Model the fold of this input.
Amino acid sequence: MDEQDIELLKTLIDTQNITKTAKKLYTTQSSLTKRIQKMEQDLGCQLFIRSRKGILPTPAAEGIFPEIEKISQSMEHILCPFAPGGDLRFFKDRCFC
Done:
């Protein structure tokens, strides 16, 4: 699972709609569906229940969502200082080489 998968899951749980999620993430529905299927295969469980009205997270997806939120927030915290206009003072005494 990578950063894009985490963003996909967060957006999909929020919209509960593959079409809206694909538009928000600037991708195709088929690409999104393949990524979901790959994640489900890797995790060994179904993450979403699909219907004509949209999708609903399964208990497994609801169970991992708090951890996904933590990971997402940690990634934002790590990457924020390196964004344009970010504050690198946080890292002034650390060497990452």
